[in-house]
Each structure stands twice: as structure tokens, then as C-alpha cells.
Amino acid sequence: MEASGGAKRVTLAQVAERAGVSVMTASYTYNRPNRVSDQARSKVLAAADELGYAGPDPSARSLRRGSTRTLGVVLGEHLSYAFEDPEAVSFLAGVADVCTDHGCGMTIVPITGAADDVARIADAAVDGFIVWTTSDDDPVLAAVRATRRPAAVHGGPAVGGMGLVSIDNRAAARAIGAVAWAGAERPALVSFPLSRDRRAAITNGAALPGVTFPVTRERLEGYRQAAEAAGIPWQDVTIAVCARNDAAEAERVAATLLASAEPPDAIAAMSDQQASGVVRAARAASRTVPDDVAITGWDDAAVAARLGLTTVAQSLRDQGASCALIALGRPAPRTPAWSLIRRTSTRP
């Protein structure tokens, strides 16, 4: 192996020879210093400094140990999403909490939908995987399973041999939908993407194509049940499918809905980020909340409290921690909790 600039890497054997000690003594200096005398350790470190030896190769050490002490988070989003989306940040913080407690690192493995996604999974030098919410047909699921390393999927889909950490999205959507559409005549829903092609569209419940993202599918089913319990046919619910969980996109689509001939008088959004965009659109259209249009979100992020949003509360940080424990080979925790938070954005 060569160092930068083409120079050959100094070996531990060369350090041992310069120090006048055995290779085992030199190795113990770095790996088991309590087994080496102060005099021998000083000789080894002085020789290493003279030769420019930086220490044992981390990759070789990992091979000997049979562990990289690193977890891989497979993120089916643009890499910047991990730092910009509040809920992704919270989820990754939960993973980091567990990594810190167990002396592990974390590697984010972004998945782009390209042909080399599977190879990127196979080549990842990690001890276990955490897969961020993805679709039923995502080939990375089979790739992760093929590594035979501990793995957890957040949100879904459920995969044999891999842990699943998810709230009951259907029940939560049924509960928030009942509040969102109470007394509504023209309900609408701002939805997450339906599949990996992330195609934006405005449609209705009866015209929805196949939904391969399990989180989106379960929430849609819960909202459908809420609508029908309120006497609203599912085909009468306008559904605006967004390509991303993005406030600006939600604001644009909500502005389109509110400018239509029959604007919605209640809009449920699948995240607080989306709901914040809906609130901005409502204000720009001079609609009062909740009198003219009731609005709900999901996640109980900081923005929900600021805007007085009725929302579903869940702890993405706790769910990230649960996924990390599974990826470390620990038993799967219980199903995460959720609750309904009522605020001023919905009608009594």
C-alpha cells in the first residue's frame, strides 16, 4: 500500500526493527499498551516518529477484529436532506445517540435510484444497516438483506429477516383525518410521493394509482377511513401528491387548490413541513384558519407549535435510536407511540 505522493507506506515491522524490539511488542504498543514497558513503548514511538509511521491501518484492524464499529444509514433522498429536513435530523440524532453510547460511528449511504445503488450497499464497510423509509420495490432492500448483517427498516416496508420500526400510520391518519375534516364539505389532502418515480399530481381518492411507499399507503388508507366515517366519499377528496416533503412545494400546490373554482375548506398534510407551506398559501389567499380552511400536519415539529397546528406527535429521535439498536443486533423495541395534538388550526 502506498501513501500519498507515491511513497511506500512504512510498516510496523520496519518500526520494530528500528526500535530494536519484536513486531509483537510494537503491535502491543498501539493495541495493548498496558502490556508494554514504558521503555519499550518510548523506543517504538520514537522509531515511528523517525520513520513517519502513522499507526496501524484502520481497515486491517477492522478485518482482524471482524467489525468496523460503524452503522450504515441507507437514505433514499438527496444527501442534503439528512441535514435540512427537521425530522430526518431528529431521526439521525437518535441513531447518533446509540452510536455514541456503544462507541460506534455512523455512515450515511445515499441512494439515488442509479444502477450502482446495490453495489454501494454491498461495498459499505459497516456492521449493520438502517434503511430510511422506502418503497416495496426498492432493490436496496434485497441488497441489504443479502449482506446478512443486522438491519432495520424505518417506516417500511416489512422485510423478512430485518427489523421494522414504525408507528401505526393507518390509525394515526384515521384520527387526524377525523379532526381535519370535521364539518368539511370540500376536503383535500397534501400527500407524500406515491412511488420512487416521485411524480407530482393532483387527483382524487378513486383515481390514485398504485402506492408503493408503505408509509404513504397506510396514511392514505387511514385518511380514507376518516373521510368515509364522516360521510365523505373517497372520490370526493382532492389529493395533491408532492414529489418531496418540502414546504415550498406544498405551498405551491395548496395555492393552486385554493385558487380553484371549488377551493378546499379543509386540508390535511402528511407532515408539518408541508402544513407550514399550506398555511402560507392560505394566508396569501386571504383565507382564515380554521374558519375558511382547517389545516393539519404530522410529526409535531417545532413549526407546528409556532403555527398552532393540530398534528400527530411522534418521536423520530426515539425511532432512530430503536433502529440503531436493531442494527447493532439488539432485540427489536416495542411499536413506537403516537398521539394526537389538538391546536387552533382545526375547527372545534
What does this structure look like?
With 348 residues, the protein is an alpha/beta fold. The protein has three domains: 4-65, Orthogonal Bundle (434 Repressor (Amino-terminal Domain)); 70-165, 3-Layer(aba) Sandwich (Rossmann fold), CATH 3.40.50.2300; 169-313, Response regulator (Rossmann fold), CATH 3.40.50. It is 42% helix and 14% strand. The protein has helices spanning 12-19, 23-31, 38-51, 58-65, 81-84, 86-101, 117-123, 139-146, 169-180, 214-229, 247-258, 272-284, 302-307, 316-327; strands at residues 70-75, 105-110, 128-131, 151-154, 163-165, 187-191, 201-204, 238-241, 266-269, 294-296, 311-313, 339-341. The strands form three sheets. The chain has a five-stranded parallel sheet, sandwiched between helices. The protein has a five-stranded mixed sheet with strand order 7-8-6-9-10, with helices on both faces. α9 packs across α10 (214-229) and α11 (247-258) packs across α12. The longest helix has 16 residues, at 86-101. The radius of gyration is 26 Å and the shape is elongated.
CATH topology annotation of the largest domain: Rossmann fold
Count of helical regions: 14
Taking the alpha carbons of the first and last residues, their distance comes to: 70 Å
Kindly state the percentage of residues in helix: 40-55%
Radius of gyration: 26 Å
Question: How would you spell out the order of helices and strands?
Answer: HHHHEHHEHEHEEHEEHEHEHEHEHE
* Coarse structural class: alpha/beta
Largest sheet: number of strands, sense, barrel closure: 5 strands, parallel
- Count of the separate structural domains: 3
* Total DSSP E strands: 12
Mean pLDDT across all amino acids = 91
Which term fits the overall shape?
elongated
Q: So what's the CATH class of the largest domain?
A: Alpha Beta
